[in-house]
Design brief:
- By secondary structure, the protein is an all-alpha fold.
- 75% of the residues lie in helices and 0% in strands.
- The chain is built from six helices and no strands.
Length: 173
């Protein structure tokens, strides 16, 4: 029994550093993700990359909120808004019809909506002097979210109904 537990302990201790190295290489920093986002030319991949970058930016804003650094929160959320706008502009340029190429548009809309929820939480916590810039970012994100929804689900033209007869139909015996 002792020999088996010793073997297990040796195997786990040998595997632990390898797992830590793999975990360290998988996590991308905000600056690495920002660089990848800036250099991405495919609009759909850019929208998908915004999800990863945005999640990291939201984590950064949570840390800054805990440290009461609302200046950093504002700067990060403004950068998120600029990134979302860049992804949307790239999608509109490369795939103007969102109904046919929904993938990037859906990813972007979902993440922008998540960004609005994060921003609403930040607005509750932010001191009054830091709210106006965050409210401007929120207005921009709301307009982007609305435009993405309109592009994904455009209004359908109403079908004309046939006109009803003016007189009631006659009953036949």
């Amino acid at each position: 029994m002792k020999l088996a537990s010793l073997r297990l302990l040796v195997m786990l201790s040998a595997a632990a550093p390898a797992c830590l190295v793999a975990a360290a290489t998988d996590t991308d920093t905000v600056s690495d993700l920002q660089t990848r986002f800036d250099h991405e030319t495919n609009s759909v991949r850019k929208a998908k990359l915004l999800a990863k970058l945005g999640d990291e930016q939201f984590a950064e804003t949570r840390l800054a909120t805990h440290a009461n650094d609302y200046l950093t929160v504002g700067q990060v959320m403004e950068k998120y808004r600029d990134n979302a706008r860049a992804a949307m502009d790239a999608l509109k340029k490369e795939h103007p019809n969102a109904e046919r190429q929904m993938g990037g548009y859906k990813q972007l809309q979902i993440h922008v909506h998540r960004g609005l929820r994060e921003l609403d939480e930040l607005l509750v916590l932010a001191p009054p002097e830091f709210r106006p810039p965050l409210l401007l970012v929120r207005q921009d994100l709301v307009s982007m979210d609305d435009e993405l929804l309109r592009r994904l689900f455009p209004p359908r033209p109403e079908k004309k109904r046939p006109e009803a007869p003016l007189s009631p139909p006659e009953k036949q015996p």
